[in-house]
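Issue 218. Parser rejects a valid record. Input:
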Amino acid sequence: MSRLSYTYRGLIVPVFTPFTENRSLNLGIIPRYGKYLAEKGVKGILVNGTSGEGMLLSVNERKLVTEAWVKVVKETGQHLMIQVGGAPLPDVIELAKHAESLHVDAILCLPELYFKPNTPGQLVEYLEIVGQAAPNTPLLYYHIPMFSDVNIHMGQFLDSIGNKIPTFVGIKFTSANLDEGAQALYADNKKYVIFFGNDKIINAACALGMDSFIATSINIFPELVINLVATGKNENTWTARKMQEKLSDAVIAISKYGNWVESMKTAMVLLTNINVGPPREPLKCLPSNILENMKTDLIKLGYEPTIKYN
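Output the parser choked on:
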């Protein structure tokens, strides 16, 4: 089988999974969520990733969320990527098959999180199995060592693949190690797409030549991130640096108050008209005093938080 073609480049937003106050799925809000992002110019969607709390959902819930987004992108024309990893391998295989049956544009996969791969060869073997479950869908690997504790060097990994995984097209690289990121970008004669996933150094990634990004902050600050990437790709380094400072200030003001998902999901509710609800246990809602501090910090930065989050 020849290697699949994958031409999408640009921004993808890792969407939050909407919950009701009792932490059950709130699928009814997803059409409005998708329309909000489309109207802001966001052309790519990632479902069931870290920000989407995919690893806190049952297999059936992950399927339901995927199916809801499939319906949305048929209307909006957005690129749809589904994260299928972070579960026992039989479930990962089932999720990959399900995603392919819905004709999604790509699947993204975390590594095995308990019996972790320790070498590029072991990771290739794992992804071969996933790729075989969805033989007609482009496959990407999700490199997020701060959560997965899988520290395989991505440049070495990509150079080792060759033609072993016909569906494999690239990675999501969520790390601050730009040296490793650059090696990944240039691996095997720039064969693979690299989606950079660190919100606070997007401008630096642009300077290295990266052109594709998956960043949680796109949910909340879509225009700023779109303009930042466009400016960075046009090599206007001073303007891009000022935009990055503005984005980083906001991200720091939000994320310093709790777990990344807890705090960013809270900010989504505070700063947009999309109420994605609380995170799911074991994640927690931010205490009211912390919430007030976040609001104060955002006001100082020029934002206008709502008071709808109780």
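Fixed in the parser; the record now loads. The longest helix spans residues 237-255.
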